[in-house]
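Example record used in the benchmark description.
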Amino acid sequence: MDVKLSLSIEFLKAFSHIPPSQQSKVQDFVRRFQANPKAPSINYENIHAASDKSLHSVRIDNTYRAIVSHPSNSDVYVLLWVDKHDDAYAWAQRRQLSINPRNGALQIVNVKQADDVRQVEAAPQNIEPKAEVTPGLFDSFSDEQLFQLGVPEELLSQVRAIKSDEQLDNESSVLPVGAYSGLLALACGYSFDDALIEASVDNPDKVDTTDFWAALNNDNSKSQFTIIKDAIELEQWLNAPLELWRVFLHPLQRKLVQWDVKGSICVRGTAGTGKTVVAIHRAKWLVEHKFTNPKDRILVTTYTTTLATDIRESLRKICTDEQFERIDVINLDKWTQDYLNKNGYHGKLILDAQKKDLWSQAMASAPSNPTENLTEQFYKDEWEQVIQPQSVFTEEDYFRVSRKGRGRSLSRKTRKAVWPVFEEYRALLNESNLKESEDFYRDGRCVLQENKSVPLQYKAIIVDEAQDFSFLALSLIRAMVPEGDNDLFIVGDSHQRIYGQPTSLASAGIRVQGRSRKLHINYRTTEETRQYADQVLTGDYDNLDGEKELLDRCRSLTRGNKPRIQTFANKEEHDKRLIELIRNLTAQDVKDSEICIVCRTNDLCSDYYQLLKNANVKPYHLKNDIHEESEDGIRIATMHRIKGIEFDYVILVCANDDVIPPPSVVSQQDNPIDMEAKMQQERSLLYVTLTRARKAVYVLSYETLCSLLPAVNE
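Model output (structure tokens):
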């Protein structure tokens, strides 16, 4: 019978921790194993005291052993673990590979830990009569309900022993991913039915607990195991063992990727919940399973060019050449300009310096005796928040338009007095053949509507970071693809809105009612970092469709140290601590590429680039280019540039009250409502920065800490 080979996520994690000098030997073994696991040169050894007799040790060299499962009467081989000899044997003695009888998932169970729990429960308990027993976190749910969530029977006692959220977090590495998600949902107050949805575990009518091949092909198994199809695929895994996102999706993520619907989908989730991963896999799934004609194309778009570049590189890693050729990855500004140019419209995108100059000229038209004290910033905000989004082109339009949320009312007389400024600014744009992004979006939609007889370019569009798109941008996206099955896949999080103003999908004609889902589990940051980052966020946030969004029910899979917040007397002490911190981390074998210094402005990035060079520390400035992970150097990036990337360690420098937000942002605000909107944007920017860290966050400031940051320690 044909040999079937599978790789567990645990094997890849273990492999990534082996010293690079030894990894090549493991790679050579795995290649030989994949070619023929029955070869005489592969010596299977039984593991003494192992509870699972299907587990065997195989020799890699004098030091390392791999743990393989080969169930009897089966043609399936599963690579489970790799480690030094004694450690590998100890791991195997505690593990059992089995098929869950409820959902058919293949699961690695720590049976030794489960036995320890049962022994403690069975031991005589000397409890004083009046002692109060702490109830278990899941006492109100039956054993059968816990089984339905994917809890293995072997771990039932262990789950029953959980009495706090922290204990549940500690079990996250032991429990199957789906089961942990379901239990977490119950702990957060979900109903059992909602927890089943969160666990995304399917419970078939019949499960054959001896059919390991069927179990490997079960959707419930695919968050922990992958089937190796050929040597090329195996080679890709061995060369990038930590890129687990390429195939090991959470069950709920996989369901969203494969959700076949009549209409559009919205996926929400706070930082680190894997929204972009879902979007990337959705693109691959659509071209592979839904839009399979060689002429069918889909678009993946986002707000910035840097994010588009990062997504393009990620798609290249999971798609075949044919699939990748049919997926366009372009930020919306560039797509719109290219489309308009092809249709005879040749406006140029205005630069910030040009915009400043045109506004100075337009202000000459401001009334000399205004009825109100209206600053230049008022006119700019009025333009961005009222005139542009609502396509106001005439004085009469301006008299009728809604100014809800602007913080002050304007009489008809005042509107008439200020209108010439907007009229002049638009005239100056036209004279210079310049356009703002909003003009491009509006014009692009008009051209699409005029060309109704021309077939639309795309079958589907995937939108990442949708919270940063304006009403006109979303309206254009709606016009770019015909309404139909799986037409739009919208991904975003209002807590990370660092550009633009809130708008709703429905107002732009994108209907997702009944097809909107939220991801709650944070796979990136530690729980300590997540909690700290959440404290930065105050005020109301939306669910991308006009309703209030809450931060409750969100948790991280891992725990670690609390963020370290330090404020120094002066900049010299601050900078000295930064260099010490970097040297301490690199002395612990942390790679340069896993440390990122984050600054509020580009000027600060330049300053710290030079500071590192002067200290004989190699810097690598992340600008608007691809993040080359293979390049040496401590990363330096702005708070805006770091979006979409992640690092083991994030160091936010100069987190001072006079730096975040920059004084120019504060001084320009015209009224309390605009000021609060800008402060909320700064909070989101801080939130984005803090949540880029996988292991730890350091915040350094001098004189006065930014008032938007909680001072958890000194």
